[in-house]
Specification:
Distance between the termini: 18 Å
Number of helices: 17
Helix content: 25-40%
Number of strands: 16
Low-confidence stretches: 2-7, 13-19, 206-211, 253-258, 306-310
Number of domains: 2
Length: 467
């Protein structure tokens, strides 16, 4: 995340007067074929409000003037190329894989289908740079109007033949994905899933590739013809945001949080709140995990000098834990050892497995102050509570927590939050340890505000902020 942001502020970390004309704001996707396998857009010379937000976000998370430090490190790593391109490079650069090479796949084939499009406000400088850098190289390039187009010969040829109507920028799927990601993007990756898989599958041969075909074939059949996915990293005023949007993907009958306690109903004041379901609610995954556990136990049992105590946790995992897995909710709160509380509420897929899990936990916990019990088909584990009803019916919930409400408001409309971390509470716990290492951790945590994740079936988001 910091690297992406440092790329974006390379040109804004220096307080030099702007020399007209400024960096081109043209969209590189307008010169990219709509038939690409994948497309990456990188903001390298942000302007105006976006530049201000990037600098503010980096300084807030990493300390004053951190943006300048990142710029210096990035420029030193570019080995002298940046001074030669920063005078003509536009605000964004687009990188695309225009086709999937035929089997057998190799590095040179990939390069042949690799395309880079860089808008420019100084075509003459761009042309001079390309003529120098590409001389004698296996890649080619050309400046067409206000665009520098270079890469593999095949990819460049495809780009030069693009008309406005058949460009990626004109594609309905691409436009929808870009709009869903929102503004302020530092890096975005777009893939027309059905199109990409349809191109990749015929090139997969035998062996491991054949296994991939067996896995990808059914997925392709389930995808809508216009299925797409995109992920983007954006700067916001006090941090960064990651969005994942999709269209035409198959969705299950239940969301990722079905069966789990809603995050908003977990204890108020929690600095960690998490709900999980998804893969935990699929019996096929559980049977695979059980098989792995049995293999591990067999290895330990046959190992020379193995002790019964060494395999006890594995037996517990296989016999007690795995059968009881299902949607779960986890919460932790407290700013000192005396006030520390943690709770786990698990809803087993097999209602009869809960009692066995509780017995196994009590045997492993021994004299540790851990509460374990069942209620209405759920397994409850708790630390720092005097009774299980306190866990199930907390005096206050996150729904009334101002920090939680502010964090959830940053998610897409209609989102179900699945993760919330309030770093203020973690910083207080870290302060209890006076060691140098703990002090450094506290210093980092003290700069962070919150982390929240959640979304809808077609739009997931993660937000990290500074205080």
């Amino acid at each position: 995340m910091a690297l992406a942001a440092s790329v974006a502020i390379t040109a804004c970390g220096r307080s030099k007067p702007a020399v007209p004309p400024g960096p081109s704001a043209l969209d590189p996707a307008s010169q990219v074929p709509a038939s690409v396998i994948t497309y990456v857009a990188v903001t390298v010379r942000p302007q105006g409000a976006l530049r201000t937000e990037i600098v503010h976000a980096i300084d807030a998370l990493a300390g004053p003037h951190a943006d300048k430090t990142l710029v210096s490190k990035l420029e030193s790593g570019l080995h002298g190329d940046w001074p030669a391109v920063k005078h003509w490079l536009g605000q964004q650069v687009g990188v695309a894989l225009t086709a999937w090479p035929a089997s057998p796949l190799n590095h040179q084939q990939l390069k042949n289908d690799l395309l880079v499009v860089a808008p420019t406000s100084n075509p003459a400088a761009a042309r001079s740079f390309l003529s120098t850098k590409l001389k004698g190289a296996s890649m080619t390039g050309k400046v067409v109007g206000d665009y520098a187009i270079f890469g593999g010969p095949k990819a460049v040829g495809a780009a030069l033949a693009v008309k406005p109507s058949d460009s990626l920028a004109a594609s309905a799927g691409f436009r929808t994905a870009v709009a869903a990601l929102g503004g302020g993007q530092l890096i975005s990756v777009y893939t027309p899933l059905h199109q990409a898989l349809a191109a990749i599958l015929p090139t997969l041969g035998s062996g491991a590739a054949k296994l991939n075909t067996a896995a990808l074939g059914p997925l392709l059949a389930k995808l809508a013809p216009g299925a797409t996915a995109a992920v983007g990293l954006a700067a916001i005023s006090d941090g960064f945001r990651v969005d994942l949007v999709s269209h035409g993907l198959p969705t299950g009958s239940s969301s990722a949080t079905t069966g789990a306690t809603a995050l908003s109903s977990l204890p108020g004041g929690s600095w960690l709140a998490l709900t999980l379901a998804g893969g935990l609610a699929q019996s096929g995954h559980l049977s695979q995990l059980a098989a792995v556990m049995r293999q591990l136990q067999a290895v330990i049992g046959t190992h020379a000098g193995a002790k019964a105590s060494a395999s006890a946790p594995l037996r517990f995992a296989e016999q007690d834990l795995l059968p009881a897995l299902g949607p779960l909710s986890l919460a932790a709160s407290g700013s000192s050892l005396a006030t520390l509380k943690a709770s786990l509420i698990l809803t087993p897929l097999d209602p009869t497995a809960g009692a066995g899990l509780v017995r196994g936990i009590k045997q492993l916990a021994g004299v540790l102050p851990i509460l374990a019990g069942t209620s209405a088909g759920r397994v409850i584990l708790a630390f720092g509570y005097s009774s299980l009803p306190q866990v199930l019916h907390p005096a206050t919930t996150l729904s009334s927590d101002p920090a939680f409400k502010h964090a959830v408001a940053q998610l897409p409309a209609g989102s179900k939050p699945v993760l919330f971390v309030n770093f203020a509470g973690l910083a207080q716990l870290a302060a209890l340890d006076q060691s140098a290492k703990a002090t450094a951790v506290e210093h980092v945590l003290g700069r962070l505000g919150y982390l929240v994740a959640g979304g809808t079936p077609t739009h997931a988001r993660l937000v990290l902020t500074a205080r």
